[in-house]
Structure formats: C-alpha cells, structure tokens
C-alpha cells in the first residue's frame, strides 16, 4: 500500500477501527459488483534474502549499554506495506526493510525482535522506551523530528508504471486514465494537481481511478482498464517485478524524500545504526538486498542522522 500525504505518513497506517471499517466496506462492494471481478495473474511474492555479514566490534561498541547487554533490538513495525514490510503465506514478517534490518543487527551483534504495532503508536513507543527502533517506511519530516531521531536508509518518491511497450508521460497525461490507491499522496495531491494543470491549459482532465488496495490498481493496469498507475517508487518497482514483464516504468522518480529508522532523541543507537548501514553500503550487502527486492532506484550512498527535510 502506498504512502499518503507526506507530513502524516501512510494511510495504510490508519487507526485499526477505521481500517477494519474500510475492509468491511470493500468486501460489501466487492460482493455487490460484477464489474471488477476480473483479475490478472501476478507473479509470486519475492522471498527473503540472507546476506553474509559478520559482527563489527568497533561499531557494536557504540550501542547503548542496555541494548548491548540485552543482545536484542526491539523493532516496532506495522504491516502490510509491500515490498518493505509485509507477511508471507506463513505469517512471517518479511520485506526489504526486514532484510536490511537483519543485516544491520548482524553488524551490531544483536538479534532483532519484530513487534507488530499500529503505525501511529510506534513513535510514541520509541519515546517511551518500549521499542528501540521504529521500522515502518517512515518518511522523515519536521513533525516527527521533534519527537525522535532518524537514521536515513532509503529515498522514495512518486513513480508511474505503464504496460510494457506503451508510452505514457507522467508530466503530460491529460485525458488519460490513471489508477491509484485511495487516500494516498498520489490520489489526493499529485494527480489532482496534474489534472488541474491540464484543464487550466484547455486540455482534457486526467481521469483519476481510485482503488481500495494497490493490488487492485495494479490489476486495473494489467487488464487495460487504465492507461497508467501512480504509486510510491518502491511499491511501483515491486509491482513491476511481479508483473511477469507486462509492466514497465513510466518516467522517473519525482518528489523523493528519505525514509528513516526512528530512535530515541540523543541515543547512541542512532550513530551505531548509521555506521552499521554505512558498513553494509561500503561492502555491497545493502546493494544486494535492494536489488533482490527490486528497489535499487531508491538506494542511498550515505546514511544521515536527522537528514534535512522541508
């Protein structure tokens, strides 16, 4: 599922009761309609990868004493958000974020303990000391930086997809049908602004076709019900990877912003994780994990504590 308005995070992270209500409504709608029952075949989810990396004693020495002595890193996470963090068919939490955190904890000599939580409860739990790290595709923004420190590990933006062999220009899509997941920055901000630019220029508006889930939006593109789709860059890359060659990128990544791991303000855990990630970048494991999950377009070269954001 995609991210919503950048200052607030992701509406896949809506409070549980609301999400349950959305799910019920979606089921009722699905049960009453025959128009959207067609489905296209997507490839299987990508399985986790396990890179080889040894503990680095110098970096591990930077850990806070309570974390180092416990031997564990308590990681708050909210699922699903493919391909970053989601569950496989056996109920295990997997994804790009998980493989990367597994590698970071190897460098630090720790065992990760992934704890599911509501998205809006993770940062308060970091502040309270319940979790050591928040790992849930957090976009770094000024509001969150007032509460926690962030270690940047990825750059995500808006990315369009099209059917392979077709030519869609995200900056000149007037009159086109574009699929999005509802309640996302793409649905609520990006496409309305682009559509308005079209009509202001005397051209046809973009027809914004909204769906409850990203899989539905991808399915609509595969079945030629729309001309393109717009989503967060790792989400789009993952959908393309699972399309068996039927989908391709359309244009470049726009409005990129950093994802970050949340830690307590002033904690030495931040510098420890920053140096552990730099170690993985320098030695190639970071690239291997990103390429495995087909999200290499968002790789960074230098992790930063509290990166500058607007």
From TrEMBL:
Keyword Signal among UniProt keywords: yes
Record SMART domains: PBPb (SM00062)
Domain of life assignment: Bacteria
Solute-binding protein family 3/N-terminal domain sequence ranges: 72-297
Cited Gene3D superfamilies: Periplasmic binding protein-like II
Keywords: Signal
Stored PROSITE patterns: PROKAR_LIPOPROTEIN
Protein name, as recorded: Glutamine-binding periplasmic protein GlnH
UniProt source species: Gordonia polyisoprenivorans (strain DSM 44266 / VH2)
């Amino acid at each position: 599922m995609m991210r919503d308005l950048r200052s607030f995070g992701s509406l896949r992270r809506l409070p549980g009761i609301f999400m349950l209500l959305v799910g019920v409504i979606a089921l009722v709608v699905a049960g009453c309609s025959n128009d959207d029952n067609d489905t296209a075949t997507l490839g299987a989810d990508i399985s986790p990868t396990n890179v080889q990396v040894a503990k680095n004693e110098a970096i591990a020495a930077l850990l806070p004493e309570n974390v180092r002595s416990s031997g564990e890193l308590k990681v708050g996470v909210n699922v699903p958000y493919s391909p970053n963090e989601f569950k496989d068919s056996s109920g295990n939490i997997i994804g790009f974020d998980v493989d990367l955190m597994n590698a970071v904890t190897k460098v630090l000599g720790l065992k990760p303990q992934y704890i599911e939580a509501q998205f809006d409860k993770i940062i308060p739990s970091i502040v309270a000391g319940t979790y050591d790290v928040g790992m849930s595709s957090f976009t770094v923004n000024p509001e969150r930086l007032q509460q926690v420190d962030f270690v940047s590990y990825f750059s995500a933006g808006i990315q369009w997809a099209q059917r392979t062999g077709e030519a869609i220009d995200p900056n000149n899509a007037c009159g086109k049908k574009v699929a999005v997941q509802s309640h996302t920055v793409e649905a609520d901000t990006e496409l309305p602004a682009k559509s308005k630019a079209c009509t202001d220029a005397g051209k046809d508006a973009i027809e914004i076709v909204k769906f409850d889930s990203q899989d539905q939006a991808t399915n609509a593109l595969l079945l030629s019900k729309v001309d393109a789709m717009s989503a967060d860059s790792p989400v789009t890359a993952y959908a393309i990877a699972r399309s068996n060659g039927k989908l391709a990128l359309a244009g470049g990544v726009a409005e990129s912003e950093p994802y970050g791991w949340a830690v307590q303000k002033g904690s030495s855990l931040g510098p420890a994780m920053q140096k552990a990630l730099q170690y993985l970048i320098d030695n190639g494991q970071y690239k291997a994990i990103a390429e495995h999950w087909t999200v290499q377009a968002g790789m960074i070269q230098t992790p930063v504590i509290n990166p500058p954001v607007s």
